[in-house]
Amino acid sequence: MRLDPVTREVVKNALLYASEEMGIAVRNSAYSPNIKERLDHSCALFDRDGRLVAQAEHIPVHLGSLPWGLRAMLRSIAASGTALRAGEMWVANDPYVTGTHLNDVTVVRPVFQGSRLVAFAASKAHHADIGGAAPGSMSPTASDLFAEGLVVPPLRLMERDEPVAATFELFRANSRTPEARSGDLRAQIAGNYTGERRVLELFDRYGAELVEEAFARSLDDSERLVRSALRVLGNGVFEAQDVLEDLDGNPSLNIALRLELRDGSVKLDYTGTSAQVPYPLNAVFGVTLSGVYYALRAVTDPTIPMNEGCFRPVDVFVPEGTLLNPRRPAPVAGGNVETSTRNAQVVLQALARAVPRRVPACSGGTMSNVLLGGVRGDGRSWAFYETNGCGMGARPTSDGLSGIQCDMTNTLNTPIEAIEREFPLRVTRYELATGTGGTGARRGGDGLIRAIELLDGTAQASLLADRHVVQPPGALGGEPGARGRHTLVRDGREVPLAAKTSCALEAGDTLIVQTPGGGGYEPGEGVGASTRNTALAHEK
């Protein structure tokens, strides 16, 4: 059968929806609120050579790391002398293989039509606790990878379509919430089975030759469209840099970028970026790629089908041993969330120098990670994780949105009902931090305030955030957004907390998180957020 344009579009769109349907299966089957409620997972399909053919619009930080990680997993399996077989699934979470951080567990299904390997289905999901020194497995002070939690190289999770009990028990034994771990792994298995079923339906209907030709043509089409979109941005060299705040709150960690646009291609050189650090703000190379791909996709044409062809015009160089390409075993938990966000903003700032009217001001610039966990009064352990929305940067034609997940995360909040049902916690405040967005002709979005009280037992809190010292910049003369802040309330006394810290909680303690606002766009009337709102979290 000849591949006609209509059939090619049918196959391409069927693959895209199949990846979305995989995500629905994971969500509906998951045990933990972080996956079921916040949708902190991503799904994708690959051809037999490991080339991405479809990825759902799930988590931006998985955009480059999922294909990068799948190829690394396949290389690791091949290096062990192991052949892929029908009926298997493989699992791994080693960030230096899978491309993000330990909490993100990747499950891969080789898809066979008869005896022939034809594709791969893969899912990546954030497991709320994977062991380590701190509940939630993202300790701000971890000095190496091994302090962050369980490190799993590629292992069989399924064999002959039966669970490998030892692998499940490995995850369960190293988590404070074992039932959620095995339940979430089974949800990822369900997602991969869904992807496999949809892929095989295409192969059975159209035949292997036609479907594989459709794969190849789809990649070529996306490459052509991306090159065309890059040409619209013009040619030139554009530089940008920004900083992250270290554990002491000093804005000492630099991300430097030289971006070159040339005839439909783009080169990014991160020479000058700070060296890796002995705490978890390092981002493995897969995370760095994700920030690059997200920013380019947002500024060019996000409707271009997402596949391997989109990456072909992009060349990224990051010196080894730096914040954006660390050497093993540097800790990386926060690199996936905080450093990835700053990297994306640096790429966007460089692109703004090329096309300023297509790029918004900086968002709040942090995921404001909150990790809580401990032991209830009855002895049961628990662990809770969420990211919090911030202010979106003002856009060239409209204000920024308030209290949303920006840039490298596309998750939802955790509903109050889910928090109070699953954990010994009570949400006592949840509102917008009014007026924290930067002023300008277009205002930045406001951050939010989230206050959580511990009701029972004892717990440990870990906080990973940024923009508590350096304000989120405005664009073209717009005012910066307000900084974020953390506060512990104990016995009626308020104690300021650092952006990146851990502390013990007692029953009755309340943790207050206020997230930064987004930057304003162009000068406008009014007083900027930088000169007010210094105590918004406690005015009401």
Walk me through the structure:
The chain is of the alpha+beta class and 540 residues long. It folds into two domains: 5-222, no CATH class; 360-540, no CATH class. 28% of the residues lie in helices and 24% in strands. It is built from ten helices and 20 strands. The strands form four sheets. Strands 2-1-5-4-3-6-7 form a seven-stranded antiparallel β-sheet, sandwiched between helices. Strands 14-15-20-17-18 form a five-stranded antiparallel β-sheet. It has a four-stranded mixed β-sheet with strand order 8-9-10-11. Strand 8 (236-244) and strand 9 form a beta hairpin. Helix 1 (5-29) packs antiparallel against helix 6, helix 1 (5-29) crosses helix 7 (208-232) and helix 8 packs parallel to helix 9 (335-354). The longest helix is centred in the middle third of the chain and has 29 residues, at 178-206. The protein is globular, with a radius of gyration of 23 Å. It starts with a helix and ends in a 26-residue tail after the last strand. Mean pLDDT is 95; it is low at 526-540.
In short:
Helix content is 28%, strand content 24%. It has a seven-stranded antiparallel sheet, sandwiched between helices. It has a five-stranded antiparallel sheet with strand order 14-15-20-17-18. Strands 8-9-10-11 form a four-stranded mixed sheet. It is globular, with a radius of gyration of 23 Å.
Which keywords apply here?
540 residues, alpha+beta, 7-stranded antiparallel beta sheet, 5-stranded antiparallel beta sheet
